């Protein structure tokens, strides 16, 4: 997947299309074809992973099969800056965070909601620090206007 998205022609076309549809058209990329390829590849991968999850891990199909992992995946991808090596590291860190929450829930006899609150606080500070590192607050007012 890393090679497909970062080293292949179609991966480049998908990246350009994701940034600007007008630019993709201008440089001669077939937008409809590229969208269809991206949808087929991502849908196919999701189908394969869903099949593996259902048949291997769970053994049965239920409504709670993923347990909110989609939202976790979005946070991991965002924190990783969509870079595959960082996705692996951040996925491991999230797995440790999830298992740690289960452990403290059992070890300290606290409700599951408290463990989830601890996770949320940790994530809040990670995302907040990421925001502070990426953006700078600028004021239009001069010192004389403030006083």
From TrEMBL:
<feature type="transmembrane region" description="Helical">
    <location>
        <begin position="35"/>
        <end position="53"/>
    </location>
</feature>
<feature type="transmembrane region" description="Helical">
    <location>
        <begin position="59"/>
        <end position="79"/>
    </location>
</feature>
<feature type="transmembrane region" description="Helical">
    <location>
        <begin position="86"/>
        <end position="105"/>
    </location>
</feature>
<keyword id="KW-1133">Transmembrane helix</keyword>
<keyword id="KW-0812">Transmembrane</keyword>
<keyword id="KW-1003">Cell membrane</keyword>
<dbReference type="GO" id="GO:0022857">
    <property type="term" value="F:transmembrane transporter activity"/>
</dbReference>
<dbReference type="GO" id="GO:0005886">
    <property type="term" value="C:plasma membrane"/>
</dbReference>
<feature type="transmembrane region" description="Helical">
    <location>
        <begin position="117"/>
        <end position="138"/>
    </location>
</feature>
<dbReference type="InterPro" id="IPR001851">
    <property type="entry name" value="ABC_transp_permease"/>
</dbReference>
<dbReference type="Pfam" id="PF02653">
    <property type="entry name" value="BPD_transp_2"/>
</dbReference>
<protein>
    <submittedName>
        <fullName>ABC transporter permease</fullName>
    </submittedName>
</protein>
<keyword id="KW-0472">Membrane</keyword>
């Amino acid at each position: 997947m890393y090679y497909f998205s970062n080293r292949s022609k179609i991966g480049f076309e998908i990246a350009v299309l994701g940034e600007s549809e007008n630019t993709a058209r201008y440089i001669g990329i077939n937008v409809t074809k590229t969208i269809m390829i991206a949808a087929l590849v991502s849908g196919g991968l999701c189908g394969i992973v869903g099949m593996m999850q259902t048949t291997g891990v769970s053994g049965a199909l239920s409504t709670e099969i993923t347990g909110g992992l989609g939202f976790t995946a979005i946070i991991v991808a965002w924190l990783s800056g969509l870079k595959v090596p960082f996705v692996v590291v951040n996925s491991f860190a999230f797995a440790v965070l999830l298992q740690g929450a289960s452990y403290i829930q059992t070890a300290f006899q606290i409700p599951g909601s408290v463990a989830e609150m601890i996770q949320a606080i940790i994530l809040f500070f990670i995302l907040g620090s990421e925001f502070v590192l990426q953006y700078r607050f600028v004021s239009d007012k001069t010192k004389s206007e403030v006083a």
